[in-house]
What we know:
Chain A has 425 residues and is an alpha+beta fold. Chain A contains 18 helices and ten strands. In chain A, a hairpin with a 2-residue loop joins strand 1 (42-45) and strand 2 (48-51). Chain A is globular, with a radius of gyration of 21 Å. Chain B is elongated, with a radius of gyration of 13 Å. Chain B contains two helices and four strands, in the order βαββαβ. Chain B has helices at 19-23, 51-60, and strands at 2-9, 28-30, 36-38, 66-73. With 77 residues, chain B is of the alpha+beta class. The interface between A and B is medium-sized, with 25 and 17 residues.
Amino acid sequence: MSAQALATRSLDDEFAAWYRSDPRFAKDPYAFYARLREEAPVYRAGDLVVFSRYADCNDAAIEATLWKTDGKSYDYGSLETASLPEEAQENLQRLFQIESLALNKMEGEQHRRVRGLVQRAFTPRTIDAMAGRMRVVANELVDEIAASGRMEAVHDFAFQLPLIMICSMLEVPIADRHKIREWGLGISGLFSGERTDIVRVIERAYRNRKALYDYLRGVIEERRARGGEQDSVMSILLSAEAGDRLTTEELVCNTVTFVFAGHETTTNGIANAIIALMTNRDQWEALLADPNLMRNVADESLRYLSPVQTEPRWASRDVEIGGESVRKGERVRMLWGSSNRDPLRFPEPDRYDLTRKDIKHLAFGAGRHYCLGASLARLEITTAIETLARRFPEMRMADPEPRWKASYNVRSVDALPLVLGPDRG
Amino acid sequence: VSVHILARVDPRKCMANQQCTALAPDLFELAPAGHSRTKRKDETDFTDEDLPLLEAARDNCPTGAIHVETMAEPDDT
């Protein structure tokens, strides 16, 4: 949407349209973000407080009194739960119940305990040890389709690499990854802001989350009975459960979250990195000429096209952020996608630049809920691009423009057809 | 031989996840600027007794922002 067209509409109208995932913003939400940062960096809409500048988003993320949920429900953006049919409200409640023991919904002592238990399985040092195995997986995936000269990058590559890796870490059968992917897609519609036939979207999200939950509970029970690997993430979780430091319900709920979050956002992270490089061809050429730039690919791509654009919080007490009072009970939303394009934080923020010196972005959030899988995601994105750059330096997008999904919350494409060119691998 | 310990938090990497302040509240704190820092005035102001907690904090940091170094030096005495 052009800046001129934006300026003719009131900010309130624009915000409402963006918040309900109006397709007008699919191609470029950044002009709207810029207007928001400029005109109302702390924007209010009823009981909702929206932060769009980097400093304020960072402060809100670190603030201990801003919680992930109010303990009763999750904030799905523009979704007005009170006006939903009873059946949909019940499904939302059921969905919340099977998610509420996941790390990314917890707060306080429970969060500190569970995060402390699982953190060591996801530290940069632990993840770096997986680099060799990851390169093998990436190359095997490419081997399968290289001869065709074409790739649908989301399906053939971007979802498979992170899902295979997280399944390996959790000792989940890799052969089931397509089934898991389908459940994941069934869940993600609600988060990404699909609002057409919302009753069905909610029912689908619950049904698929429950299916993934039941499946992983079975996998865990079987793993517990037969034993397994010594140093896997699953072995760490099971030993915590055996030592009464993690309940069985916490174990299952968090395994569901690791599997879902462990591939869904990274799938988009890999696809978005490909798009960033293919639509900024000079940076692709620079990367081919200087492989040292590879160390910046993941972070600059995550900054430039952040897969998760926003995240909610709930004020558990009165607090001041960005010079504004947030009252207890108000909802808060941090716009990562906007903060990562904030010119007060990043010089020339709309430029994709692999030589950028300081890329401390908020694509993984910040504070106590900083993404547990950040190191894993970084390595997966880097490995994916490294593999494609080495083997297909002449690759390009089959369509000149990516078809962005209309979503206030998730920056993603459903498909990304590539013409690979000759395999130089 | 005495062991000298150096510990510091890199503010360019720290995302204030606060694993370090939870694991070792006597050694780390959240600075007003929004990143963790050691509580000591000097980055070498640590003893052998601090080492296990410093290393645990380093190993659990999700962004690899904590640097811990041990240096063995001949004891003057």
